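so the lab meeting is tmrw and i was supposed to have these ready like two days ago... anyway. pasting both below. for each one the top line is the aa sequence and the line under it is the structure tokens. i havent really looked at them closely yet so no promises
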Amino acid sequence: MKFTEHTKLRKEKFGTVLFDTLTEKIFISDEIGADILQLIAQGKDLEEISSKLSQECDADKPTIEQDVLEFIDLLKSDNMISECGRACVL
């Protein structure tokens, strides 16, 4: 997965702000959301993101994976991220 070309990110003290330059929608995340967004920006997939967060948050991986999947689905529904194959370059 990757951010769409019209999605811009900005890190803030409270988390991260995503801005869709086409629709002018703004999405604001907290610190955990910011971690997920950073991992997406690094090209990590759902498995890698869930593993890293479950270690950092000392939580069970299935719960974290479900939460991350819901977060990603929300971003997809707002067209801020899209699926991308292995050959994708960010």
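ok protien two:
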Amino acid sequence: MREAAKRGRLLGKPSKLSVLQRKRLLADYESGEYSAAQLMDISGLSRSAMYATLNRAREEQRGSREHR
């Protein structure tokens, strides 16, 4: 997998949401304004996919802060 990543060939299914959509999902989740069920309906994700997406958005957020 690491060798594939080095060559720019990542395995796995592409994300259903764009980077901007992931940021918005994380912001909405952390605001507490929406329940997990509401966010699942809005985004069209299953519960497990939504939490995986939230984790990915957090990692992207941390990564962007480190590059500043």
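from a quick look at the 2nd one: Residues 17-66 form one domain. Residues 47-66 form the longest helix (20 residues). will dig more after coffe
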